Amino acid sequence: xxxxxxxxxHRYGPVAVVALLVTGISFITRVFLFCYSWPNLxxxxxxxxxxxxxxxxxxxxxxxFFAIPVALYCWLMKDSWYQKKWxxxxxxxxxxxxxxxxxxxxxxxxxxxxxxxxxxNFIAVDYLIYTTEVIGNIEESYNMPMIFAGVLLAVILLxxxxxxxxxASQQVSMRFAKRTVFFFGFLLVAAAAYxxxxxxFKNISSNNYVNELGGNGIYEFGAAYxxxxxxxxxxxxxxxxxxxxxxxxxxxxxxxxSFVNDSTIERKVVSDSPEHHWNIVLISxxxxxxxxxxxxxxxxxxxxxxxxxxxxxxxFENFYASGTRTVRGxxxxxxxxxxxxxxxxVRRPDNENMFTIGNVLKSKNYDVRFIYGGNxxxxxxxxxxSHNGYQVIDKRDIPADRIHHxxxxxxxxxxxxxxxxxxxxxxxxxxxxxxxxxxxxxxxRPYTYPDGRIDxxxxxxxxxxxxxxxxxxxxxxxxxxxxxxxxxNTIFVIVADHCSKSAGKTDLPVNKxxxxxxxxxxxLIKPAIENRFTSQIDLAxxxxxxxxxxxxxxxxxxxxxxxxxxxxxxxxxxxxDMGYIKHDTLVILSPQKKISSFKIDFKTGASVGIATPSRxxxxxxxxxxxxxxxxxxxxxxx
Length: 638
Hints:
Layout: H1 2-6, H2 13-36, H3 45-66, H4 68-76, H5 79-82, H6 88-116, H7 122-129, H8 131-141, H9 144-167, H10 176-196, H11 208-213, H12 217-226, H13 232-235, H14 241-252, E1 257-259, E2 267-269, E3 279-285, H15 304-309, E4 314-320, H16 326-335, H17 357-362, E5 367-372, H18 381-386, E6 391-393, E7 406-407, E8 410-411, H19 413-429, E9 434-439, H20 463-481, E10 490-496, E11 514-515, E12 517-520, E13 528-535, H21 539-546, E14 551-553, E15 570-573, E16 578-582, E17 585-590, E18 594-600, E19 607-610, H22 614-632
Parallel strand pairs: 3-9, 3-10, 4-13, 5-6, 5-9
Antiparallel strand pairs: 1-2, 2-14, 4-11, 4-12, 7-8, 10-12, 15-16, 16-17, 17-18, 18-19
Helix pairs in contact: 2-3, 2-6, 2-9, 4-10, 6-9, 14-22, 19-20
């Protein structure tokens, strides 16, 4: 104990105090998350100790970063000043700031884990950009005065606990030259931690909960910030462009389509039947997991209307989202392109004049709109859609007297649907077909909605209520649409943007990407259960195929009714891991050019590692590197 105490009786003793605070708070957080996640852990003695030993390593890395301003202060402050009592004021202010960040970070991390079952990641980074929506959401979802009071109390208690350890460093002297050696030696350690450590060291298990617990939320947040956009060729396995294009052309070939030249995937699609200029209303529903539906085993009866709609729709039994964010869903539904590492194309530079379903239909004289109940500035949705063939209508265009309920994320779904109805009427009166794509918002924390609509009170702040309310709003919208003269000439598509939670026991649990998809048009499309494995990127070309549309396609998605079943494949992803599924095999492309493969269980998401089949490896690279190449080379422009 004396040797431990001697650490603090040193000019750089405050650096040790920072390490004590970081590791102590991180350990408590890790233990809490460990207990909370216990049912999902698959442990043995090695993994148990691995969680805490690797976790301690990451905690010390984070401590080296937090200690930099403290070490700088200890280096620059000369002895005659440093040993004065007044010097305690700047030291305690510095430690108050560090303690506040650490405690608030721990609270944020626990809250984030409850929502996503992972450490702070790129989603948390994105949230920093959209402070209005996020802060509003937090204020509506949590008792912030109580939380801040708790954080401040914890900071005060921590400062009281370490006060003597901080002041102990004032009892010793150290010449400037010696202080300089210590300071630059410490900087060397911090630099080594920055350049030599990455967030993959924690991955010691096939169980993702074990890996996440071994990490540190603040470190993961920093890693996500720096790696929010990843260059495919730098970080992932590659093949020659010609090889990739050749594989893609082979898999995209379909009857009635011919490639426009020998070096592209662009093909001229010609139907042998007359075009149908049917109206389309595409409803992309926020976080509608397949498991919510009774049809897929849901037991809470929160989608009664959608379940009742299945026998009257073309319903896709095996439909899978491309990613875990709304922008990934919107990217897949509009561009029909596999996800690329890092940010969605919706949020990237140079994403104007892309080949979207909106631009295809606009060329057919459709009115094309993207309608969003929130502020379309969020996630760059407004810019992307307005520069890719859509008229954007959002919360700012909805009259105040039409709004029944509102959260930080936007107006209640029924209010947004009422605007959709207006726009459909407007196009019909003008004698024009329409494509209206609406993105819902109500199934989002704080999970509130107008009272009296469903049997779960809004005040409960339960996701079950939000899902059931969205189900109610869709029901009311379609009931009202049935009274309209344009109803019998309209296709209604209902599809999720992604699942509510994507984390599971594995890196890419396939069951966490399973979403419902309905094509409902009683007089136009024959009801059926479609059992083929269908990716979110296949929806746009399949819709156009059902309407016999003639167009030059650059889509990487399939018209599934023109492609042989043996070509069926799925794409699932995080912002780093790119998953390619064919039959029951999942190939994952990861940074550092890593490739891994698994046999998967579609119901449980469980997976067993296998050797990577050469053919599937090349196909996975072709799709993902091909998507990145086509985007960056401008080949996905209209």
